[in-house]
Structures are given as structure tokens and as C-alpha cells.
Amino acid sequence: MHIIISLTVSFLAVFGLVVIAFFGVWAAHLEWLFGVVIPYLAVITFFVGMVYKVVQWARCPVPFRITSTCGQQKTLPWLKRTYVDKLDNPSSTAGAVGRMILEVLCFRSLFKNTRLEFGSGQEIKYKSAKWLWLGAIVFHYAFLIVLLRHIRFFAQPEPFFVPLIENIDGFFQMFVPALYQSGFLLGAALTYLLLRRILDGKMRYISLPADYFPLFMILGLVTTGILMRYLLKVDIVAVKELTLGLAQFRPVVPEGIGVLFYIHLFLVSVFFAYFPFSKLTHMAGVFLSPTRNLSNNSRMVRHINPWNYPVKVHTYEAYEDEFREKMIDAGLPVDKESASPAE
Amino acid sequence: MQTPVDIKPAMHCYACEPARLKVVDFPNPRVWSAMDEDWKLPKNWKEIVMDAFKDRLDRFRTFKLFMDICVRCGACADKCHFFIGSADPKNMPVLRAELIRSVYRRNFTAAGKVFGKLAGARDLDYGVLKEWWYYLYQCSECRRCSVFCPYGIDTADITIIGREFTNLLGLNIDWIAAPVAFCYRTGNHLGIQPHAYKSMLEFFQDEIEEVTGVRVEPSYNRKGAEILFITPSGDVFADPGTYTCMGYMILFHELGLDVTWSTYASEGGNFGLFTSHEMMKRLNAKMYMEAKRLGVKWILGGECGHMWRVINQYMATMNYDIAEGSKLEEPVSPLTGTKFESAKGTKMVHITEFTADLIKHNKLKLDPKRNDKVKVTFHDSCNPARAMGLLEEPRYVIKNVCNHFYEMPSTTIREQTFCCGGGSGLNAGEDVELRMRGGLPRANAVKFVHDKYGVNMLSCICAIDRAVLPDLMKYWVPEAGVCGVHELVANAMVLEGEKEKTVDLRNEPLAETEDAEDV
Predict the structure, then answer these.
(1) Are B119 and A71 a contacting pair at CB < 8 A?
(2) Higher pLDDT residue, A177 or B394?
(3) Cross-chain Cβ contact A210/B120 below 8 Å
(4) Is the pTM of this model over 0.80?
(5) Which residue in A has a C-alpha nearest to residue B61's C-alpha?
(6) CA A124, CA A176: separation in Å to the nearest integer?
(7) Residues with Cβ < 8 Å from B264, sequence gap 6 or more?
(8) Helices (H) and strands (E) in chain B, counts
(9) Given this model, what pLDDT does residue A159 score?
(10) What is the DSSP letter of B29?
(11) What are phi and psi of A333, to 5 degrees?
């Protein structure tokens, strides 16, 4: 699909959601729908959808143990392996767990990324390329921190770590309210990830509306969130009343929360509901990837394929029956000396 | 992805002859050609593909997961040698997978069913099928992209299953189907019959005697031998693999190893891997059947790439029940006593593991000066590197038998190694443009070490490499030759009772001091 269409469609989709929430609350006064019903439905969809997805994957067998081996295998007793080898070509479960931890927490494979460049003539160069890694890791961690900060809206009293995160996140206390870096970093990382898709020819070619949509969506979340906190303030006490009500299954819709909040909440709801149906399922899928979460020990221990079935093979007997005369002439040993015709 | 596929000559392999498919009872054999408008598909081809698609989604977690979780981050895009060499965007691994994923979305996901194109979904039609075929056979299943994928998405796994679909429709390529058919019947890809196999090795015996003055005596199909040796038939058949084969023969003779060759299990490689999981299993079964029949204790495997992918990742899982009740046991080197613990499941040891261990324990008399005329670099074959992790063993061997060894840049070796351009059954003559393009990154790295250090020999541990790389070198780096590691080993070996050596296994003069300085 052409980039302009993809971008337009995804942008309009997000914009459309904003408009729906705006008119739904501002004109039609559907606060209960947008503040209670939709969020509940969204959260249910998210959990049911993700559990369903994971169960589907997990029920699917792993017939062969196929790991990506990015380091020296475990082999001769005298051949020493480095720690990197033990992680990148794990021979034990511990190694595979270590590999997964680094992958999930540090995006290690992305860290290894290289960039191809053509030099003069036929020369090809491979340069280190860490920007994607940086963009991805900033995006994910900033998003996580923003999410954790939001716990304060859903718990009373707040768990101990929430104020801690807020303190660290709002380290540069130059403004009131404290400026949270995470929100801005998140916005910056998203902008980078979006621009990358638009400006790099390869990325433009592979990107689908399904890639732009989540980016616009989260950008919309960040924008409405930042606006609410710093500029067009909403009644934060009323907001907490609502969110706490949701969390405690005693939904209330207080008067006078700005419409901006409902837009934010609606985007969040759609985002959650969209999750299980999209590429965002990589959040859970990464843990199940057999190329990364298995150790490379299939020469040591037989891996069992639950659907292994017998196949038709060409037996030695059939082979010898066909070639017996030639084998005898060539002085090759045979099982049946007499060249009796096959039955 | 809207751009319809344009099937170009020299960028694909010829369709297979129907007779090949009949040998192995494959469906829909017929005469067809990729350049024709009409591929003579069976009437219910869509149904066949969709049934198979659903079946594979239920049987392979990898396939199902890899259909769902790609975020198109693009990290894999410029990692594929075919993309680097061809600049065809559909050769970006992510796009290659998207060709299939788009059909998955349309038929198996809610988003694809509801939103269609907007969700990146499309129907499977004739054009899409042709596109699949074209790009499935422009992937050498080398797995370089999977190293860089944050989720470890293995395009090879997707390609392997995609190729299963094409095989159900009789859309095979001859370069794969012919070896499969030959291997099934005669035991090896090249269709060498038992008596011919023996006479080929006899020819090597004569050659070896001429060069070294030593007569080696291999044995065949011998019951009661300790070790069964299996190597790709390419080593028996074509230069420069033949010199590697002579290398094995010299090594076994010098060690007095109780080893036998088999004319029945006379193929290490397994083109079934490029066909279907089932065909791979059918061909691979011979290794254990023959090991059991001959009563050997363990199996030694020659230098081959995808052979070792099958042995490492599939063999025991698929076929070990055949070996039940056999005399196979945990391999132990009879010369050094080393237990190959890492192979105690499959009972199969790689020859560079075996030889590296010999060298470590001083079991070989070596004179590396005999290899002084070669400045060697080492090409990690994709499969031993990325599907096994056999990185140090061949290097250890080479460094002990050669004085001049230089590594190619780190971004082009070990797990980041580049395909020769002809892996996964694409080593035909008719797709030479594809091969030269795909081999560009590898050739470029060789050229780099050639220009910098004067490297003139590209060593490898893969029979397909030995068949593909000479053409590639001729085209991109004509100064570099290609050899197997055990050719270098044999050239450096000082044999008991040898005559004064003046030539190497290729019958070319050994470097004398003045020649060496001349380089």
C-alpha cells in the first residue's frame, strides 16, 4: 500500500477515534459509555484476547529444536567457550534463560544490528547501527514507566514504588508540576520510529497501515496525556475518583472531568482492545520464540516431536536387490550372495 | 507488494522433470515451466495450499508465531545476501515472509478477514502463488536474518514450509528434485551406483599414491567396523571437493582408523530439507539404518553444510527410533580417548571436531610449511555456523596446518557469515545471475582479505560451498581458489612411508622457499 495512503488511513483512524470520543462526551454526554463501559470491555478484550493468543501458540507443538546459534557450540572438552558463547549458543537451560533475559530486557539482538553501505566500486561496508536499538529501548522503557506511574490512579494507597518512580522520573524539578521525562522521551522515541519508517526507503516499502496506526495511536495517547498534565488541565481529583471506581469495580462518573480525559481514556481503551489482534502481540510472543528460548543440545539429548510419524524409506534390502550383481562384480560385500530374483 | 512478480531468466531454477517426482511418490508431476503463463496447476490448488497452511500452523509453533509477531522493524532488511546483491525489495527477509503472512492474515486472522488490505492481508491468487514460488526459491535458508531479528524469527523456517506448499502442487525445481530422487534410490544425490562409487574412490587411491607414494585402502559396507563415515557425494564427484575426499582417505589410512564407507548411505547432504520435512526424514533414515546394519559404534560425518543442519536439528528427533537396538554408543575417539559428549544423543561427530581433537593431542605429524603457498581464509558455511555453532574447530585445524591464515571482517564470518549464493538447492547453472548476485557479499569479503593480505585460498567445510564458490570466485575474485579443510590437513600431513613430496593433492608443485617469497 502506498505510503501516503497508509499514513492517511492510520492517521485518520486515530483522529476519528478522537472525534468520536469528543462528540460522544461533549455533545452526546455519554460519559458512562466512554468512562466505564468501553474501558471495561477493552480490558476484558485485552486479557481474553492475549490469553487466547498465548494459549494458541503454547498448544502448538515445537516439533524440532531449532535454535539460532550465534556462538561457539559446546563440543570438545578442551575447547573453551566464553560467556558470550554460552549465552548465544546455550547448551543448558540456564544459558537459554540468560539469553532470553538479555533479549527481553536489553534487546540484545537489535543491539548487534549493522547497517550496510556501498563504498566505491563493489566495496560493501557494514557499520554499527545502534539507533534502532536506542529508539526501541527508550520507547519501551519510557512506555513502561509511564504505565507504572499511572498505577497511582488505580490504587489507594499507591504502592511504594510509584512515588519512587515519580521522583526519579521528575528528577529535574524545574517546573510545577514536575516535568516527567518519560512522557517526553516516549514522544521523542515514537517520533524517531515514525520518521524512520517514512524516510528510509526500505522501511517505507515494508511498512503497513498496521505499523503506522499503533505509532499514531500512542502518539495520540502521549499528546493527550501531556496536554492534560501541563496545559489544558483536567480535574485530577475527579479523574482519580473515576479510575479508582473502575479498579474497585464500583464505577462512578463524577461531574466536570474535561472532555480531554475521555479522549485519552478512549484511546487507551482502543489501544488495549486492539492489542491481541495486531503485531503488538510480540510482547507475549517473544517469550515463546523457539529459536531463542531453547538450548542447542539436540545432538546430546533427543528432542521429541509429538507428531513424528513413520515414513516410507528405501531399505538396504531393496537397494541391494537392485544393485546386487553390480556390487558382486565390483567386489563389494552383499547380504544375500545368491542373485535370486526379488519376490 | 502490489507490484506483480516478474519472473526473470537466470534468476530462477528450472522446473523439475515429472519422472523425478514419481520415484518418491510426489503429487502432481507434469511438464511445466516458470516462464510460461500457465503452470498447469491442479484444479483444486488453492484448497491444497490452504489445507496445508492450516495443517502447518497447527504443527509448527515457529510457523504460527512467526506469522503473528513480526513488527516489521526492518532490522533484517539489509542482512540478506540476495537483497544486497539484487536490490529487489522482496528479497528483504521481512518482505519474503510478508508474502506468505499476507495470505495468512486474510485467511486465518480476524483483522485480515475484516479489514483486508488495510490490515496487510491479500487473497491467494495465481499471481501471488507465482510470487511465492519465485521468492521461496530465491532464499537459501541461510538464517542470517534470524540472528538480527529481535524475536529470532527464522525466515528459513518459513521458507521451508512455503516450499512444502509448492511441492504439494508439483512446483519443484529440478536441481532439488533430481538429487532427492537419486538419493532415494541410489543412496546419494548424484545417482552414483555402488560399483561406480567404489571405482571413484579407487581413482583417488591412485592419485594419492602418485602424490604421496602411499597406497590407502578404504573399505566399503563393512560389517563390524567401529565407525561409519558419511560425507556428501559432491566430495566424491566434483573438484575441488575430491581433494577434500582424498584428505579424508589419507587421514583414515594414517590413523589406521577402523572405519568403513557405505555405498548405501553414501550421501551426507539431504536435499529433502529443501523439499519437505517428510522427504528429509525419508532420506536421512539411511544413516541410522546403515549404522545399525553394519553394527558400527558411531558415525563420523564429513564436511558439509546443510547435512549438519539436519544432523544437529532434526536427525535424532526424526529417526533415532531406527537406531534402537543397534550397537551405536557415545562416540569416543579411538586415538585420543576423548568422549564426544556433545554428540552422545545422535552418535555422530563432525570430522573437524574429530581432527581438531587429534591435533590437540599430537596424534598427527604435520608440516604446515607444505601449505605455505596458500594464504588461507575461512568461510563459515551458514549451517554449521548458525544452525550448530561449529566455529572454532575448523579454525583450530586450519591454524595448525597452515602458516598463513587471515580472517575476513568480523561482520562477515562466524554467526554473521554470508551464504555462498547457492545454498538450499539453488546451485544450478541456469540461475547463475542469482548466484553471482547472492554471492556478492561473500565475494566482497574475500576480495577484501585478498587485497589486504594476499589471500589466495578460500577454505570451507561444505560441499555446496565447494561447488558454488569456485564460480563465484572466478567472477568476483579470480585470484582466489577454493578448498576444503581436510585438503589442507592432508597436504600438511607427514605420512609414514611417504615418498619425497613435490606436489600437493592437486598435483601442483608445493611452494619452495623462493616461490613463497615470490608471492
Answers:
(1) no
(2) B394
(3) yes
(4) yes
(5) A60
(6) 52
(7) A316, A319, A320, B187, B194, B221, B286, B290
(8) 24, 7
(9) 87
(10) -
(11) -65, 145
